[in-house]
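Researcher: Let's do a round of design. I'm pasting the structure tokens now; please hold your answer until I've finished.
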């Protein structure tokens, strides 16, 4: 039967009815271990009781009032975020793409407020992915996402990932900011070295540029810090956040210093649904857990254990796994086989993963995962590697015959 849905997704023929913790269950009762977490969204797994309670209680009271009026829970969440980060101000939206759009607008408006409206261009990096709106696609610069949508939105200058000379050469009198992901997720789980993040901060300070960090995938504990840039001991001027901040509820946020946001005045930006009471209730509940003492320590312990176990798989199956990448519980396996083949084979073992660029398979388990569940995941990855290795041998034998 033809689906009435717009055919923009290559969906697996798999539907889930319910979930609990790191597990998902189909209508037929088949249980899958979730190492995708809804593409790094379900940071506390599925049906976390604290999140369920928060959204249920709020749903009984008020869903939406609009930003024509104060939303106290939004003010509370913004205050908690600013107290836990570099930021002074927060704008709430509904997605990562909206958080990026707000970041771009804030950066451009900053220079306009300083009397330099010609400074609107933003330097980005090859392999980046910042969202699906036209401006976010232009910032990401990937041809496969831009083709067929008309002229590319003006104002973005891309440089190769890790090419310091190209970066310096790209800075001109119209440059407003540098936008980068601390770890490229979609781009292949490529982490920006600590010294490079520090160098970017110094470069922005020297040249009067704003540093924008896209922490949509890396934020809210995914790398073992509340936000990934903390590993480098630096602070951005503007930061886009989404995915885990809502724990599964659609939510995004743009955080900024008061200096960077100096141009944003009444009417300069807005959102009908952004910061609605339901989202704010879930966001506050998510922070209750993420800011709890010991939570990030747990993430780091589980990340270390998973990396160690993956290293063992790399040693045993070098014909299948080429490299292990990433930080915290944002990990990637670059494979010798097509990454989609690996994902399909893992799904046969009832293990869910996510693809990425550079032939990488992303492993993004919920941050609440425990040692036993990591052990089970690694067993399923091992069976995946065994199945792929057998297939490779069979193909080689048929070729030799």
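Researcher: That's everything. Go ahead.
Model: Designed sequence:
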């Amino acid at each position: 039967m033809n689906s009435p849905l717009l055919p923009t997704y290559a969906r697996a023929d798999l539907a889930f009815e319910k979930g609990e913790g790191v597990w998902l269950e189909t209508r037929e009762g088949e249980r899958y271990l979730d190492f995708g977490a809804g593409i790094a969204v379900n940071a506390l797994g599925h049906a976390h009781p604290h999140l369920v309670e928060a959204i249920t209680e709020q749903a009984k009271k008020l869903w939406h009032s609009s930003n024509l009026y104060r939303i106290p829970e939004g003010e509370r969440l913004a205050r908690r975020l600013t107290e836990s980060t570099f930021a002074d101000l927060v704008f709430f939206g509904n997605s990562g793409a909206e958080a990026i759009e707000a970041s771009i607008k804030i950066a451009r408006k900053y220079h306009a407020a300083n009397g330099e409206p010609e400074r609107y261009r933003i330097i980005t990096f090859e392999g980046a992915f910042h969202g699906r709106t036209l401006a976010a696609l232009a910032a990401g610069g990937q041809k496969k996402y831009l083709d067929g949508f008309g002229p590319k939105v003006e104002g973005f200058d891309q440089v190769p990932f890790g090419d310091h000379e190209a970066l310096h050469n790209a800075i001109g009198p119209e440059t407003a900011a540098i936008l980068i992901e601390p770890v490229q997720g979609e781009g292949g789980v490529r982490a920006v070295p600590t010294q490079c993040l520090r160098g970017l901060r110094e470069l922005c300070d020297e040249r009067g540029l704003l540093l924008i960090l896209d922490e949509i995938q890396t934020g809210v504990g995914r790398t073992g810090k509340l936000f990934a840039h903390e590993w480098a001991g630096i602070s951005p001027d503007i930061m886009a956040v989404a995915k885990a901040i809502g724990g599964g509820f659609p939510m995004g946020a743009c955080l900024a210093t008061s200096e960077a946001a100096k141009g944003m005045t009444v009417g300069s930006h807005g959102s009908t649904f952004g910061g609605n009471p339901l989202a704010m209730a879930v966001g506050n509940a998510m922070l209750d857990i993420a800011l709890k003492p010991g939570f990030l320590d747990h993430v780091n312990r589980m990340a270390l254990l998973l990396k160690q176990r993956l290293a063992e798989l790399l040693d045993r199956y070098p014909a299948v796994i080429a490299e292990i990448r990433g930080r915290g519980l944002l990990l990637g396996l670059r494979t010798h086989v097509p990454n989609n083949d690996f994902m399909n084979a893992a799904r046969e073992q009832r293990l869910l993963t996510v693809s990425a660029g550079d032939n990488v398979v992303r492993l993004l388990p919920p941050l609440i995962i425990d040692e036993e569940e990591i052990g089970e995941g690694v067993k399923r990855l091992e069976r995946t590697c065994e199945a792929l290795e057998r297939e490779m041998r069979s193909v080689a034998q048929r070729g030799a015959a």
